[in-house]
Amino acid sequence: MKTVNTIQQAIVIALLTILSVTFAIAQPTATNRGRDFYCSFLPNYHENSRREDDALRLQDSLFIFIGADIPTSGVIYCTDRDGVTTQFPFQIFNPKQIYSFAITWRGYELEGWNNHGTLATDSINQEGRVAQQHFRITSNDDVTVYALNQAARTSDAFLLLPVEALGTEYRILCYPSDGFTTQNSSPFLDLTSTPSEFGITASENNTQVIINPTAPSFRHGLAADTIVLQQGESYLVQAKISTSNLRPDLTGTKVVSNKPIAVFAGHQRALLPVDLRNIISSRDHLIEQMPPLSSWGKSAILTPYPQPGGLTPYGIDLCRILAAFDSTDVFIGGVKKKTLSAGQFYTDTLLVPTELRSSKPVLVAQYKRTSTGMGGLGTQAISDPFMMIIPPKEQFMLSYRCINAQARNAATNQPVYVQQYIIVVAPQTTVSDITLDDFPVSAAAFQPAIGSEYMVATLKVGDGTHSLRASEPFGIYVFGYGSVNSYGYVGGMSFKEFDYQEPEIFTTPDCFQVRGVAIDTHRTDSRIETVAAPVNLQKNTTITVEPLIPFADSVHFTAKLTDIFEDGECTILAKDSIGFITSKKLFIPGYTLRVSSQLPKGQLPEIATDGPLERSYCFPVTITNYGLYPQIINSSTFASNTGHFSVPTRLPIILAPNSSVEITVCFFADHFGVYIDTLSIGNDCVSKQITSIVVTAIPDKMPPVISITNSPCPVPVGLTVSESLPSDLGIKSLIFIDSLTKNVTVTTSKGEGYQTLNMVIIPTNVDEDAFFAFNVTDSAGNISTIRDTIPGFTLSLNMPNAPNYQLDFGETVLGVLNCREVELENYGQFTLDFGNPGLSQNRIFSIPPSEQSPLIIQPNQKRTINMCYAPIKVNDIDVIETDTLFFHFGCLTKTLHLQGIAKPSVQSTISECDVPIKIISLELPESYGSSANYLGQNIPNPASNTTTVSFMFTEQTKASIMLYDAIGNPVETLASGEFPRGVYELTADLSKYANGVYYYQLQTSKERITHMISVMH
User: Fold this and answer.
1) Which of 471, 682, 701, 735 could share a disulfide with 635, CB 3.0–4.6 Å?
2) Phi then psi for 506, rounded to 5 degrees?
3) Class of domain 795-902
């Protein structure tokens, strides 16, 4: 099966891995001593590179130092930017002396985007491009090699790793870029800004390298970068500094290759700590060779550096801890400091000797701080930044041969480094037998490292070669201080490859089981100790693990469902001999399908129904997926295989979790009887019985059922004709009886369900009564008959322009009630009941209250109703007022449109002073019909020659309006007489009255209403 093939492929890969590393496992542990070395020098900051003085311009050099335990010889190969290789043979006669080699940096150092204070042209900038510069050192015997990039006031040294100590997986540990801007009003990046950087050199041809940066690089940004290098070729990566990102840091960048590579990382010229840029000033080059991830450890002894006098008081020495894997806990001095993910780092200060421990492998570096402050504080102070990889104590060795490097100042010929140191880190049990250059180191020089059994001694030494030995493995850190200059490197270390990878678990699903294999076959793996499945994490599973003899390369296992019709899960734990545990949770789908009704296990649900004879009868069966995973149905079978039952549903069908689907089961039989069968469904792995089906085949003795659909509207009429019983044979014919069918239009459609016919009957003319009748016959000869009527909207208004009926009241004086008769006729055979017909507005047009009872018209009868028009306001000239009377019949409507024109009530009278007064009734107020009379304020007021006064009566009233002077003497009668109900307006001539205050008063038998009026000519 394909599952077995997949497992076999995994085992083949594992075996190939085992065979490919057998030789490597058998080899002695690599150290920093070897016979073949590759390196490249990262860009330094050569501030004298443009000086005219050759002594200054050419003083910066690249140094290689070679130490041996026995006399030996070899060759240094130097390849420049143009790919030209020059050989420099060397010979060491006295092993107590270190061989020193120097060459100009020009053409041999990698060149980046910062060309020592200017932006490099594209032809010079090698960042993100394959470069030729590199050094190769070969020897006839094992040697130790150190390198130093020495420049004016910016240097650092590093330990070289031999080819056998190189790896294929790295994480970069460096320091944040030092970017800063000019102080102009529009700041831009200062070109003395220096980047975080690293470089790669290949030891073999066709080396493929994949780089996943944690910060944008100058040429490729944050994109993953894949390159192919030939033997000796190098590749430089520098962070891209911008005004919006002044501190990009390449720390944590992952570098993976298919062949061993040498990786170097650091900083072109670092200010440290970079956060104090505006307080401290001096900078220095940082470089170290990165150990491969396989040699990282879980412990380190952190040691503070000696602090020379005259240093700026600002800043402090630092350490950085970089994690290789997720969930890495970091402890310093026994105190948990941080939990790191892969590629993350933690920064802390160096104050006292202390032990660092971690739960998973880490890479540790210490950083010396900047010595000089701004404004001359600490000028020309001793020391400056350098970076040193701190080896895990598991990589300590028994002896070291190292060099405290020295260089000369080109201008003064004085030594650059005036203080030389070696820090010794040793177990408490061996401090008494450590020797330096064959002389015992005083035990009094040591102090304890907090939280450990190690002691630390800081030894001041001279320039040149030094040898250290002890009875137990110990570590040394080598460094030197000069005027605003320094270097530092680890004095040596072994490169034991630790098991830092957890076992791997590969699985392949099969029918209701999972087959798997746990392997631990990488070069550094320690092999599998146990494979187990905790019982408390098992659900409906049975686990089988093949017998295991520790320590195994691979272990097979199988997890099966205990009940294949339920889902299951379990957790497999694979533990290697070093203690790494891999956990993998397995989910195994069961065949979780059933019919919707569920009975206890072992009992099948039953579907029972009647069925017809000599006709296929089909019905749905609902199947539900009650599990957590999608299920497939690609087969269906019946146990008896008699041919009475079948499933026409197209397969396969996929059911999502907690979903249902209907499949169709069909039945056919010729004879009366009870037919029983069992339905099974399945997939490629199993067939499952899901229901028992019982069908009783009986003759069709029932006629078709005719039902009328309930509807709020009598038109149209909906009917359903159905053969609804399973034993029914179906509709054979439907025939209308012509003599009983009149004024109808019929549409039919197939209904839902078995043998159903839907009908819609509509009167051809809805204003006429309609009649229908039909017979429906089924295939067994059973007949059903229906006869019915559909009343029409048989209303006629005896007036012209039917059906656009309109009643025109003409002109009506304001306050007059104008009524007209309307004759209605029902010319049909059914009673028309309109209830209380409604007007759309019902304000100025109305039906008298005496006629507002339900309007019912019997067949072939007439009825008269009154419609009235009572205008309450005069609109613009000849504006027609309208309303509409509605007659509703079911969902149909007929209308009578009403219209009329309001005319004002005009009266003329003569005042007692023989002044003619025109009184016009224009409007009945909103309070029309209330008991309150009304007298309005004259307009305008004050008045000059004429003014207008409005007043109202709610019923016919005898009244007068009198004008009085300021002291109450009558002046004039403005209006007097009998006034019908309504609103009036009069215009009074005031031209003959002197200026002053007057009063006018409305007088009736019941009340007095008075307002003041001012006359001003």
Assistant:
1) 682
2) -115, 135
3) mainly beta
CATH fold for domain 705-790 = Immunoglobulin-like (2.60.40)
Per-residue confidence (pLDDT) for residue 374, from 0 to 100: 72
- From the list 362, 290, 255, 260, the residue with the least C-alpha distance to 24 is 260
What residues does CATH 2.60.40.10 cover in the chain? 593-697, 705-790, 795-902
Residues of the chain with CATH 2.60.40.1930: 906-1015
Point out which residues pair with 886 in neighbouring strands. Answer: 838, 895
**Residues 796-837: pLDDT tens digits?**
998 887 778 899 998 888 767 888 889 999 999 999 998 888
Q: What's the number of CA atoms in the CB half-sphere (13 Å) around residue 237?
A: 33
Gap between the Cα atoms of 682 and 663, Å rounded: 13
What integer best gives the mean pLDDT of the chain?
Answer: 88
Q: Give the Cβ contact number of residue 436 at 10 Å.
A: 20
Token match 């335990």: residue?
Answer: 69
Strands 805-813 and 892-903: what pairing?
A: parallel
Average the pLDDT over 9-26 and give the result. 37
Task: Give residue-wise pLDDT tens across range 26-73.
Answer: 345 678 899 999 999 999 998 876 666 655 556 678 999 999 989 999
Among 680, 667, 591, which Cα is nearest to 635's? 680
Q: What share of the chain is helix, strand, coil (3-state, %, to 5)?
A: 5, 50, 40
Q: Which residues sit opposite 868 in a β-bridge?
A: 819, 846
CATH 3.40.50.720 given to domain 593-697: no
Q: Are 155 and 149 in contact (CB under 8 A)?
A: yes
Exposure letters 803-818 (e unless 16+ CB within 10 A, then b): eebebebeebbbbeeb
Which residue is listed with tokens 């009235």?
A: 868
Residue 501 has pLDDT above 80, yes or no: no
Q: Quick one: what percent of the chain has pLDDT higher than 90?
A: 61
Within 8 A by CB and 6+ apart from 53, the residues are none
Task: Specify the residue for token string 């008081």.
Answer: 313
- Mean pLDDT in residue range 988-1008: 91
Two structure tokens written together for 629: 């995973």
Span 643-664, average pLDDT: 95
Give the Cα separation of 419 and 384 in Å (integer).
Answer: 12
**pLDDT greater than 80 at residue 378:** no
Specify whether the CB–CB gap between 270 and 283 falls below 8 A: yes
Under 8 Å between Cβ of 560 and 548: no
DSSP state letter for 278:
T
Measured between its terminal Cα atoms, the distance across the chain in Å is 120
Count CA atoms closer than 13 A to 481's CA, side-chain side: 23
Look up the pTM and report it: 0.58
Alpha carbon distance 251, 241 (integer Å): 15
Q: Of all helices (H) and strands (E), which one includes residue 742? A: none
The whole-angstrom separation of Cα 277 and Cα 176 is 12
Preceding amide of 391 cis, omega within 30: no
For residues 643 and 620, what is the distance between their CA atoms, to the nearest angstrom? Answer: 18
Half-sphere exposure in the Cβ direction for 475 (13 Å, CA): 23
Beta bridge partners of 489: 478
- Torsion (CA) 408, 410, 411, 414 in degrees, nearest 10: 10
- pLDDT confidence band for 13 (50 / 70 / 90): very low
Q: Which of 177-191, 266-280, 497-511 has the highest mean pLDDT?
A: 266-280
**In which band, very low, low, confident or very high, does the pLDDT at 97 lie, cut at 50, 70 and 90?**
confident
Choosing among 2.30.29, 2.60.40, 1.10.530, 3.30.499, the CATH entry for 2-25+498-588 is 2.60.40
Q: May I ask the CATH class of domain 906-1015?
A: mainly beta
Tokens of 202: 């290949």
Instruction: Look at residue 111 and tell me whether its pLDDT is greater than 90.
Output: yes
| Alpha-helical regions (H) of 241-326 | none
- As a whole number, mean pLDDT of residues 586-613 equals 87
Cβ–Cβ < 8 Å for 380, 280:
no
